[in-house]
Write a structure and sequence with these properties.
alpha+beta, five-stranded antiparallel beta sheet, 5 strands
Length: about 160
């Protein structure tokens, strides 16, 4: 990892279910996040994503890229254009600083009407072993069940 490295983009379909589920999961019961009629009465064309859901998606973007050994130390984001159902948010990131195992990544999430989120994430990554360890089998060694293990990192 070096300053200037770009993370691959992540496209996230913005569904009504994602918006409502994210609001409920974060205990944000503001009607603009789950009731389209009340959102329209307040001047919005539809329900829109709350900041806590956005914050979680930014965290997911970083940890998906850097792996399970990644620890988010600071997430500083600012919202812009709302995320409405039917749109797609594309997250992109650029490593701006690296100091040992600590890095700072500039993140942007854009949708069809502009930048939904901009900000920076400070993280640390666990050191990756440089070779086979004597404490256990190598990743390509068969497990006790006879199948080989994988280190894909997907959850």
């Amino acid at each position: 990892m070096r300053a200037g490295d770009e993370l691959p983009p992540l496209e996230i379909p913005i569904t009504r279910t994602l918006i409502v589920a994210g609001a409920v999961a974060s205990r944000d019961y503001q009607d603009v996040h789950h009731d389209a009629e009340l959102a329209r009465e307040k001047g919005s064309p539809d329900v829109f994503m709350n900041i806590l859901t956005t914050n979680g998606l930014v965290g997911r973007y970083i940890t998906d890229h850097f792996g399970p050994g990644c620890v988010l130390r600071k997430v500083a984001i600012r919202l812009g254009a709302p995320n409405y159902p039917g749109d797609t948010m594309t997250l992109t990131g650029t490593v701006t600083e690296v100091d040992g195992a600590t890095a700072r990544v500039r993140v942007t999430g854009a949708n069809g009407i502009g930048h939904h989120v901009t900000g920076t994430v400070t993280l640390t990554v666990a050191a990756v072993p440089s070779g086979p360890s004597s404490s256990g089998p190598s990743p390509s060694a068969p497990s006790s069940s006879g199948s080989s293990s994988s280190s894909g990192g997907a959850v």
